[in-house]
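pipeline: protein-struct stage 2 | run 1193 | Calcineurin-like phosphoesterase domain-containing protein
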Amino acid sequence: MSGARGKPSRLAPNEAPFPRLTLPGEPTLIYAIGDVHGCIDHLRLLEQRIVADGRLTPGLKLIVMLGDYVDRGPNSAGVLDHLIAPAPDGFRRLCLRGNHDDMLLRLVEGTVDPEWWLEFGGAETLFSYGYDLQHLAGDRRRAVSDIIRRFAREMPPTHLAFLKRLPAALTTPRYFFCHAGVRPGVSLEEQSDEDLLWVRAPFLEHKGAPFERTIIHGHTPSKKPFVSRYRIGLDTNACRGGKLSVARIAADGVRILSV
């Protein structure tokens, strides 16, 4: 998750591995976007910049979303609506799974403690769907449980289907895209879903040999994008007053855009 807390130990493993995608060649342009967290206005502005930047370039132009579309920011429901809609003309969009997206799905499926999820940023997500927890009275835990059950029944089927099909990673000949990062010493093909969505210190503090590909990720917020030979980190805390950032990846290198 974005922030200081790590993966909660009480989460059960997934029943089946999440999908992984591979492209045999590099697209002409890739625009990799960091954690949105409900900041729909930032996302729309950034897409406008992407369209202006790439509109005259022929070939495959791919927008890769690095996960965490929901929680903490003002309009998670609006972000999912936007991502379900077609990509801008001339572009393709590929959305990866973030740990917050996975947690929302687990909540709807009934495998997450609602009170813990609310601390995780879920109250803002509920509000974006029209559920206001600010004025609960009486038995709060029972009231929250009732609201979560109602939310799970009424969540738009298109949003639920979108969350269910999100892949955990994308591989191209030069780059590896995922939400959180990878575990050093493990081949990219053998990375666990847990690490792809949650890893922090082992990945961020790695000083050894470079990975098989440059890792493009979000998950761990910073004031500005982090760029090194090992990795490019793109979570710049849009939901807490920072910017939403994108790495523009082309044959001539990587350039950062932010709004």
